[in-house]
Amino acid sequence: MTEYNIGAKIKKLRLAKKLTLQAVARETGFSPALISQIENNNVSPPIATLSKIAKFFDVKISLFFSEDEEEYRYEVVRRGERKVIPRVISRAGTSQGYSYESLSFRKQNKKMEPFLLTVTEKAAEENTYNHDGEEFLFVMKGTAELLLEDERVILEEGDCVYFDSSLKHRLLSRDGSEVQVLAVVTR
């Protein structure tokens, strides 16, 4: 597994549009400090944050995971080739207790983005996120708790859920043990 640098791509998009950190922060709802930390790869944003940044710049989220501009008709990603996004940090600057791996980063102009989420601890905060699109979650290991608007949905190994991503949501470990989830997100 290799770590992928998304900060430089976000900074390149910002500079190409001649925007300040403050302008991007104002339009996305994030703080200038968080945008700067993301650009400098000090923190990795949750998928919802990355989705909002992609929408603001009018690019597909896959741009942040791509290695080149070549168009592929299909893609095979081997276990050791996944792009790991560690140190996921909230707007408030706190750890979210999970990491994710991009399972497709060469294919451009995709209609969906597959990720492997690994929740490694019970989060201290239960803040939620929302973004455009839809999500499909399949619990591969452990017991998850999905905060979905005002509901708490318990998902056991083998369970899945499909929902509109505009609903405020957050995936947590039910008891603090490791949970692995296949997540497919559309924009």
Automatic annotation (TrEMBL):
Transmembrane segments: none
Keyword DNA-binding: yes
Keywords carried by this UniProt record: DNA-binding
Coiled coil as UniProt keyword: no
SMART domains linked: HTH_XRE
HTH cro/C1-type domain: residues covered: 10-64
Pfam name, any one: HTH_3
Record-level Gene Ontology MF annotations: DNA binding; DNA-binding transcription factor activity
Listed GO biological process terms: regulation of DNA-templated transcription
Domain of life: Bacteria
Protein name: Transcriptional regulator with cupin-like beta-barrel domain, putative
Annotated source species: Geobacter sulfurreducens (strain ATCC 51573 / DSM 12127 / PCA)
Source species taxonomy: Bacteria, Pseudomonadati, Thermodesulfobacteriota, Desulfuromonadia, Geobacterales
